[in-house]
Design brief:
The structure holds two protein chains of two kinds. Chain A contains 15 helices and no strands. By secondary structure, chain A is mainly α. Chain A is globular and about 85 Å long. In chain B, helix 3 crosses helix 5, helix 7 crosses helix 8 and helix 8 packs antiparallel against helix 11.
Chain lengths: 324, 301
């Protein structure tokens, strides 16, 4: 087992390194740079000496190799440098926003589990009835509805109901307070984006639950359980669902990995100051340091989530450890 | 769901049933897929006959009728520039279909050739190729698309083309992966050895002997990608990074006005989103039934 863990851990290095190379080159392939943008932002004339000085200050006049080495060696020791745009340490800039995005991601995952497991199970148990069709339509719709539109509809719904019930429009707060400081305030702000993204992410998990439960229901031990007269609800809860959960957990894990990179649009709709918004801003500002750090953060989360899913799987099923 | 027993041998004999009868048979067995195909057909119809369906100009402002509620003249109402929403949705189908089909097709096809090539050569080449695909998969999709759009800023090409390119790039690894795993199995079949023994070149074996045999996963991933591409195009346009005003595009219609006037003119926010949802819904349903028809084993995908 320990060999497998170490081997799997080493496999993450090429992914992280590749992502570093890719983001480094992509950012520098975008025409224009931060100094030019800052000076010419107002549309006035640009003093080339000032631009040159600014580039030297930011270290952009060095050769690409040196810049890349700087970025990689800093990343390895956990020094992410400063944002080129604000001059603040990247760690401080990202920390609070990351908290917000991570909380939405976790809450969205909870929402998707709460939708996927009961719906997927009932859809499998009532296979080919109208319940099954309704659940499947609901879950296919989840993939089809753009989460930003769902977000707009939720905001619209809040506005209309609050006006009808309280006589005045209420909008979710937009400045972040951590959940341990003001839980009520925090939840009233973040539950909406979590619902919008969670519904979308529940779709794949619902289908997975359905097909996994369907498969398990055909097993001999389920037939045995039924034959010996176990109540149907118990058969489904204890014999079927419990054994079907493994692939569902995998899917949810993989989706969580994608979630962190996918919050960009949702944050825009709800006007939240999270990682996604910072991402778009930093690409537009040509803030190389910030974009590189954010990409590495998201890719690292992706790689580690996949790593844990694999380890969890290998722990449950020893055959996997020897296959690779 | 249909089981194998539902199909009698007679149904499978070619030439026995006409094209229409075949389609009707498919429709009876596959209600959701037919619904999807209908939605797709409606969308294609809207895109082709847009000028015949509506008499308004999708880009003409008319400040006399800003944010009007749905009425007889403006079936779905007007936006903040007085443009007819129904017209913009009809013309928006053109943008969505163009971007959806082209980026899914180019992405899936490049992925097809790359995936098969990687499986065919195997060894170190395959291993390196897989690592590169891992990186592209781990890279956040929207950010990759955003970077590609920004890089394209300097090129003298249209926004639509840049968006197509931006969506194509992240699609390549997704298709290459699926195709590669099917191609790995095909490589072991003796006719590939036979082709090699005949002295055929590598490109010939790849293109003539392997590619035709992975058409099923290719078609599956292609149909599944069209809906996704439409959705990504809408997201990019909504963020202001995709198609630019005044081109009619559904995602763009939800940008700006939709939230600002959500309370006073909800139709601006509702109808374009509904169009996106129905289009993606249609393509997904259709794609699902294509998948079931071509390869029932892939149901879990």
């Amino acid at each position: 087992m320990i060999n497998y863990v170490i081997k799997r851990l080493f496999l993450m290095i090429p992914t992280l390194f590749g992502a570093a190379v890719l983001v480094f080159l992509l950012m520098r392939a975008i025409p224009g740079d931060i100094c030019y943008l800052r000076m010419a932002g107002g549309g006035g004339t640009v003093d080339l000496d000032v631009v040159r000085q600014c580039r030297a200050d930011l270290g952009l006049d060095r050769t690409l190799w040196v810049q890349f080495w700087d970025f990689i060696s800093g990343f390895v020791v956990g020094d992410f440098g400063k944002s080129m745009w604000t001059g603040q340490p990247i760690f401080d800039e990202v920390a609070l926003r990351f908290q917000l995005s991570l909380q939405i991601a976790i809450m969205a995952t909870i929402v998707s589990i709460l939708i996927a497991i009961p719906f997927g199970t009932i859809s499998a148990v009532k296979q080919d009835t109208w319940v099954d069709y309704a659940v499947r339509t609901f879950s296919i719709a989840g993939i089809a509805i753009p989460s930003f539109w769902l977000g707009i509809l939720i905001i619209l719904g809040i506005l209309i109901t609050s006006k009808a019930w309280f006589g005045q429009s209420w909008m979710p707060p937009i400045t972040y307070r951590p959940i341990w400081v003001d839980p009520w305030y925090n939840l009233s702000m973040l539950i909406w984006p979590a619902l919008a993204t969670g519904y979308r992410y529940s779709a794949v998990a619902t289908r997975m639950t359905r097909s996994a439960v369907l498969e398990v229901l055909r097993e001999d031990y389920v037939r045995t359980a039924r034959a010996k007269g176990v109540f149907e609800t118990l058969v489904i809860r204890r014999h079927a669902l419990r054994n079907a959960l493994l692939p569902v957990i995998t899917v949810i894990g993989i989706e969580f990995a994608f979630l962190m990179g996918g919050l960009v649009v949702t944050e825009q709709v709800f006007n939240l100051n999270g990682i996604g918004k910072l991402f778009v801003e930093s690409v537009e500002n040509h803030d190389y340091n910030m974009t590189q750090s954010l990409v590495m953060l998201v890719v690292a989360i992706f790689a580690f989530t996949n790593f844990f899913v694999d380890i969890f799987y290998a722990w449950l099923d020893p055959r996997i450890r020897y296959v690779r | 769901m249909t089981t194998a027993q539902d199909f009698s041998v007679a149904d499978r004999v070619p030439g026995r049933t006409s094209w229409v009868a075949g389609a009707l048979h498919f429709a009876r067995k596959n209600m959701l897929g037919t619904a999807g195909a209908l939605l797709v057909l409606i969308m294609i119809f809207m895109a082709i006959f847009a000028p015949l369906i509506t008499s308004y100009d999708p880009t003409a402002n008319d400040f006399g009728v800003m944010l009007e509620a749905p009425s007889h003249e403006h079936v779905l109402g007007t936006d903040q520039y007085g443009r007819d929403l129904f017209t913009r949705i009809v013309y928006g189908a053109r943008t969505a279909l163009l971007v959806g089909f082209l980026s899914a097709f180019i992405g899936a096809t490049i992925g097809l050739v790359m995936g098969v090539t990687s499986a065919y050569f195997g060894g170190t080449f395959d291993l390196l190729f897989q690592r590169v695909m891992d990186v592209l998969m781990a890279f956040p999709l929207i950010i990759l698309a955003l970077a590609v759009v920004s890089i394209g800023d300097a090129w003298p090409v249209s926004d639509t083309f840049k968006v197509i390119l931006a969506i194509t790039v992240p699609f390549i690894p997704r298709c290459a992966r699926v195709v590669r795993s099917s191609a790995l199995a095909i490589r072991e079949i003796p006719y590939i050895d036979a082709a090699r023994a005949c002295g055929f070149s590598h490109p010939r074996i790849i293109l003539r002997h392997m590619v035709p045999n992975v058409m099923a996963p290719y078609l599956i991933i292609f149909t599944a990608s069209v809906g996704q591409a439409i959705l990504i195009e809408a997201s990019l346009s909504y963020l202001g990074l995709g198609v630019q005003e005044p081109t009619p595009a559904w995602g763009l219609m939800l940008r700006g006005g939709a939230e600002e006037y959500a309370e006073s003119a909800p139709w601006v926010a509702i109808f374009p989103g509904l169009a996106i949802t129905l289009a993606v819904f249609g393509f997904n349903l259709f794609g699902d039934s294509v998948r079931d028809a071509l390869d029932p084993k892939l149901r879990q995908m």
